[in-house]
Amino acid sequence: MLPQEVVLGMRVRYPRTGTTGTILRIEHHRGDVFAELDSTHLRYRIDQLIPASGSDKETVTLREDAKNVIEKERAFAAGSEMTEALKNIDQSCEGGG
User: Fold this and answer.
1) Taking Cα atoms as reference points, which of 63, 55, 57 lies closest to residue 20?
2) Distance between CA 91 and CA 67 in Å, rounded?
3) Rounded Cα distance, 97 and 89, in Å
4) Helix or strand or coil: residue 90?
5) How many CB atoms lie within 10 A of CB 20?
6) 11 compared with 76, residue with greater pLDDT
7) Cα(45)–Cα(41) distance, rounded to whole angstroms?
8) Is 84 left (phi over 0), alpha (psi -120 to 50) or beta?
9) Please, which pLDDT band fits residue 95 given cuts at 50, 70 and 90?
10) How many CB atoms lie within 10 A of CB 59?
11) Most CB within 10 Å of its CB: which of 22, 77, 88, 96?
């Protein structure tokens, strides 16, 4: 992105790590322009950022899906199916080789 395109409050993404956040502050340092993101409070070079597509709803949906999976796994581990599965193994650790 060009420094002229960046404004405070804009949602951007740093593609190398996938970090997404809102620009809190813009700074000039040694000839480069940096933006501080609210999600990490780190500064990223403006020319390395891209506008973020999507919304926070997608993140919330993914978080809710992950919570549902965790609850199902906990229910399975606490239930009789896990106990039955453990009865059918000899509990040895054979790594091969």
Assistant:
1) 55
2) 30
3) 20
4) coil
5) 20
6) 11
7) 13
8) alpha
9) low
10) 11
11) 22
Q: 61 or 39: whose pLDDT is higher?
A: 39
Consecutive H or E run containing 83: helix 80-87
Beta strands 43-45 and 32-37 are antiparallel
Rg (CA), the chain: 23
| CB-based contact 24:12 (threshold 8 Å) | no
Distant-in-sequence contacts of 60-69, Cβ < 8 A, 24+ apart: none
Q: What is the mean pLDDT of the chain?
A: 83
Extract the runs of DSSP E, i.e. beta strands, from 18-75: 19-29, 32-37, 43-45, 50-51
Give the torsion sign (CA, 21, 22, 28, 31).
positive
Looking at this protein, which amino acid is placed at residue 82? M
Q: Residue 22 in contact with residue 38, Cβ under 8 Å?
A: yes
Band of residue 52 on the pLDDT scale cut at 50, 70, 90: confident
